[in-house]
Backbone:
């Protein structure tokens, strides 16, 4: 028998040999009743620690749980791929709309964001033009936009732009005396520009006193407006379309007063109920099949959940019996590590995964019938559960002896690896704090290269560590 | 004798020692006839498992096959390089034409494609201009193009553009009521613009009702036309030129309705018979030499094919004799692994490689005389066969004892490596599915970096694994 | 007892066993007094080489130093993060101003520097235009700049630009005869352009003879001016703003006479006293809390410094006692390595770190109250001390036996690693010198790729080296 | 005695023990004369295989050669750095001029080359404009160029442009019949445009029939002209300036007839004698010091060369003596490997390095006094010799025992590494040929990524190999 299998069956043989050793010694004076009980417990223990193949051979028990898990892998992965594809469409629609808005509302947008802001201006003329451009483009939106967007109503149920400027409360700059008076409290001014105001005389609003900016005390200008959009794409896959409300905000940020105004564009997309939308023709035909599939996944996961819970309950009951027997017979407690052997970690993994799949599938069905739109939570639940299900496959590999060796090796070397990471982590933490302060702000460009260097250092240290492990025969 | 050589000759010595051991035991009662037969079989077996050098030393048999293989490596590589160079010209011609078409027909093409589409527009004016620009450029083609292109006839034998637009069947957008009626079925409208229509009044066609696009229900606009071209370059290397038909399609894709129209440019280049082309002067002089070379490659490969097939047939016959003898003498079957030892895997490799080279060379000759133009299949056949031929060189390295150790080590560690990959693959699969859904759509930019990180993780895990192998002395 | 702990306690047990061995031998003839002294010394030595946990167990001594160090890590890291954030603001303000100046004063600045210069011009017209553009933008500064900048006074207390040109003293180029006379000495001409001169007639100054450049003998043109700026951003975090003087220099470098004039932009930012700045409102409220925190850090570091110094003094006294005793008893000197064991390297590390933190904190407090502005020195001191403090954490890991093994392994393999680096370094040095001369100037583009290759070579060599170490069981 | 030192001294002890073993056996019957001779030879042999430190200890011989080598390292590196800096100036001057020419003569040059050509045009109008732009810029050169360039005389001693076009001899394209007649021979037409012709009527020459290009049969247009330039930069470092003749060629390449004309710009810079250049002032002052330094380097290298040659001659003489003695005494030949031990490989390395340094230094001196201008050969000689000198340092490391182990390990594992590379190389060759043909032309973009993957594969294979070596204890 291989060493790997020995290691797995260690608790069994420990206790079993303890039993047999004990039984041999106390054989003569034992009652017949006790002997029968002991034999039955020994049989149950042996059977409990068998793997499905051995169980089948021993009692011709068909491995339902194993079959169910394999079916579950297929189902859960299929479900995840389907959901992933439709989720990707939703995310792509949001992102493409944001990019389109940037092209429409930001003057001189190059197609790629600088750092974390979209673009920047460096002189007063450009600053004014950028602000006016955004307002004008909003006004002309219907004639320029390629998407299915329309004006949305803001919190006050009005259609229009809200322009706010934030500046230090009072301030005066006297160029001759070269003095600057600043009152450090911050004031915010806002005006609303509705479509009528913009249409009446297109250049009138520009001359209002609001748009005379005193840059030396200006903190930021914020243009915010709402747009509505429809994701018609889903019609092609015979699903009902989602309606969106885009809360767009263009921020001209002059907080740094460094001569560079950074322009941020934020677009919060919320999925809302579609009002005033009539879809004729053959829509929503195949939704019911998807719902049936999801329901089937839930049923399977429930079955798996019940079977695994039952296994754990049985194991706990067996442990209780064993502990009692052991206490009666040898008058001592079973050590803690042996007690934990009764709790099969894989079952816990399966139960967690099943619970996540069930909740995720219910969310997915609700999304399908447009009751809720929480794509993010659903994707985290389904994604994580699929990850756990696939990791669980390694367990089945462990049934083959050769793979067992591999898995045991990993288990054995894990504490050493963690210890190495703790040591390296300390040095890395100190290095990061020091490097951030001493080098960080000066050499922004070299960070990437340094990253490459660090990975080389890491590999070098890691190799040394593995060499150390292997020379000590710690990895067996 | 080195351990490496022992391992290779293992079956021989196994069976041989079995024979000798058996013969010693049953010597007394054996007939003379059986002894002679046994001795002859033993000699044949010993000879069969020798390598060419040993064969030469044993029976002064000149290693024709070895010489043929070495000659074949030279020939096949030369042929591949020649074909590769001419194939590259063909591919480069197609690619350069596609790039030139993009510059000619796409307004504002920057020289590099965005993602998988060529460029994109974000407002209505740009969309109209891009469409009109493509049509106008087609009209002026003769005056602007630098290549030897002419108008090609489409399926209906007409010269001109076909513009198609696809949209939802009925639709109405009422800006005041903010409602949208969409009929989910899709309709396609097309018009043909021939050169005459374009010439008559250059701005007339733009005002047709067809070119009034309702973007809110538009799915896509497709402009398709055919162009003819000649690859005159081959005249310089004294070969007949190929004639091409380019089926160009410009697609303005608004399926997402996200405010961004993606412009795709597809150019399908087909090589067709050249009509109306007169080449005077000294062309097609050296084609015959190339054909002769290809024919010679075929002859060599045929010879190699026949010799290897013969070897395999002889080996099978020897196996039959041996099995029969073994059954007669020891009344038991030879084990499966020993039976497989008679089939030399390298010969199978050579036969596959030869067959591919022969088919590839015939294709190459047909391409040379312009009967067919299937460059792709030919390149796959010739390329793969060359790869196999070079991999076959490792076999000859195995004749040297020191290299033999290396090859045997690889053979021994291969199953461990595959097992490691299976385990890592499971985790990787789960991680990929999970990562794609949970992280994928949100952080497109970080994928590259993550790729780098993953390779570091892989190296770290791999090192640990190698350390494990080396500490177990599994790698011998 | 583990081997790790043995190694650490080696000197103790060495000397202790020497003592016990000696004492057993000379027990009979020793005086009672000597025995008591010896016993006391042995006790003290044993106690000295204990770690805090053991000390607590042995004499119930509460580990003040250990607690103090843990508190110090928290405090120092918090302080560093706070300082890092404010330092980053200062650096970002300088950098953003420099970028804004480049956009304002350099014609056709693309946003990224070429190599080490900002941009370049290739013909005479562009050269003149770039110079005039810079001067004009300086004149219009108040109307175009977005920042809080004003004109600064130069060394002569005048406001204006200083334009200098450097050229070979005499020179004549005769286009007809194709001869060139150059006098190799260098001459510098300068003019001052004050705001009045620029305002009077905006195009007048361009026609002065100074701006007729003879490019064949021109070496460089330098435009220098001063600007004042205020970093108002700090008001938001309730701190007093810093005032800056930017000494800007635009250099048109024609030294190479290669037909390419490189344009450099240098901006030296100095923090100066703010004159003529009135900040009203609630500023400088929370400065006192920060100062109190810094003071507390200083107190803690002082305490740690005193405790560690005391430990070292005690250790030196103990060593003296031990040396004297050893000399008396065995009539020989303790070997050097054992003497060094008394000096705890970690204490030295802590003392250095404490001194740096104290000086750094004092500097930080001075910066806080705007007495000095030396951010760089302060960041180096605080950063390095934090690095040392974090590295010191490894020491506490050493108290756990399993980590001890790891640390001892590192100590053992360090000399081998250094030796390997010395060898590799020699080859690398030669390769660098050779590569720089032979390949360097011709293939600038391939340097990056070569860098990648080198790291692969390094990893390959390193692996071989680690394999060597691990096969020799040198890594224990 | 360490194992490393044993290995180095192996031949000595081998032969010495052979001698002693022999001498013991034949002691009785040996003559006194023979004994003295043997003793002297043994002494000489022992001394010969000592390292400098041991020689100093044995006979107090001062290690002149060692000192000389250390001095040489310093001198040669200094010389290389000096030469490298001046060579870099020359290369930078050529490159900057080429870039400046590209900006001046190529219309729409973006600053970076596409692939191997500078830029490309895609329609007829752009093609004409690019050609006319180059000619016009040449005409206006004196007014636009920033460098010290003037018109150069071409082979016929005329100043002007030579424009050549190459096309298929006869050709006709009938747009109506869609036929194309091409005569496959190639014809070249040229015209000369001198400055007078360009000045007379600036637009006249454009209308000549030469500039009516028939693109369907055009192969290429070549514009070539000469420019003169002076590298005045060297005056700053008090050296005489170099004069250059730039042979510029602009090639409009239409050979592919793919609708894309690639524009190549070639600039061959030759250093020629400066005519008509008068430099006044203090030039060429410090040239003599540099020449003296170079002469000193030559002297040192000559000394080193002589000493090493002497050592080799002495070693050969010693070998002869030893061979003769061995033959006389034991009547057998010394094995080949032991004979080779007498030739010290390091001396050969030093001799090669010295010869290269001497030749390189002479070339450098000639360049200094402007007799020759062959910077490339000189840089290869000096660079390679410096590399060899630095590699030679490893030898001195070998004198320390610990480093010796490292070097011996490398020597031992080298054959294994080479063998591994041979095996991997075979697979790589086949893979490269196959990949180039099958994948190469289609997926140009993915080559980089594939490169990254390959390096990961390489590292994985390498690790496995090192693990194999280390598990076999082959690396000792």
Residues:
């Amino acid at each position: 028998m291989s060493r790997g299998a020995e290691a797995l069956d260690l608790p069994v043989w420990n206790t079993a040999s303890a039993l047999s050793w004990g039984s041999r010694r106390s054989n003569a004076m034992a009652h017949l009743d006790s002997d029968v009980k002991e034999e039955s417990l020994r049989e149950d223990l042996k059977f409990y620690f068998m793997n499905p193949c051995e169980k089948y051979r021993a009692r011709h028990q068909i491995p339902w749980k194993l079959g169910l898990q394999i079916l579950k892998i297929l189902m859960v992965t299929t479900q995840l791929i389907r959901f992933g594809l439709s989720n990707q469409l939703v995310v792509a629609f949001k992102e493409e709309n944001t990019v389109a808005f940037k092209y429409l509302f930001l003057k001189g947008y190059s197609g790629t964001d600088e750092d974390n802001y979209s673009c920047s201006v460096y002189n007063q003329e450009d600053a004014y033009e950028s602000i006016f451009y955004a307002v004008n483009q909003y006004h002309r939106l219907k004639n320029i936009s390629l998407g299915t967007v329309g004006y949305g109503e803001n919190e006050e149920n009005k259609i229009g732009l809200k322009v706010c400027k934030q500046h230090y409360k009072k301030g005066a700059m006297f160029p001759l005396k070269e003095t600057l008076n600043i009152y450090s409290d911050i004031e915010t001014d806002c005006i609303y520009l509705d479509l009528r105001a913009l249409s009446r005389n297109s250049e009138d609003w520009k001359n209002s006193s609001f748009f005379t900016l005193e840059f030396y005390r200006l903190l930021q200008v914020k243009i915010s407006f709402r747009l509505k959009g429809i994701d018609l794409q889903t019609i092609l896959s015979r699903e009902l379309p989602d309606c969106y409300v885009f809360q767009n905000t263009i921020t001209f940020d002059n907080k740094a007063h460094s001569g560079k105004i950074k322009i941020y564009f934020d677009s919060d997309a919320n999925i809302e109920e579609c009002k005033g939308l009539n879809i004729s023709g053959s829509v929503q035909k195949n939704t019911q099949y998807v719902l049936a599939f999801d329901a089937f996944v839930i049923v399977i996961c429930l079955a798996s959940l019940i079977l695994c819970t039952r296994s754990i309950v049985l194991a706990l009951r067996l442990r209780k019996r064993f502990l009692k027997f052991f206490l009666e017979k040898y008058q001592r407690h079973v050590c803690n590590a042996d007690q934990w052997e009764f709790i099969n970690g894989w079952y816990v993994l399966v139960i967690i995964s099943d619970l996540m799949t069930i909740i995720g599938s219910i969310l997915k069905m609700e999304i399908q019938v447009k009751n809720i739109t929480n794509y993010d939570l659903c994707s985290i639940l389904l994604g994580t559960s699929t990850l756990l299900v696939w990791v669980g496959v390694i367990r089945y590999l462990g049934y083959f002896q050769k793979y067992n060796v591999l898995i045991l090796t990993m288990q054995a070397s894990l504490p050493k690896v963690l210890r190495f990471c703790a040591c390296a982590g300390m040095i890395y933490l100190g290095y990061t704090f020091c490097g951030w302060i001493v080098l960080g702000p000066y050499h922004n460009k070299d960070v990437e290269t340094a990253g490459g260097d660090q990975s080389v250092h890491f590999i070098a240290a890691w190799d040394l560590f593995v060499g150390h492990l292997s020379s000590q025969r710690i990895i067996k």
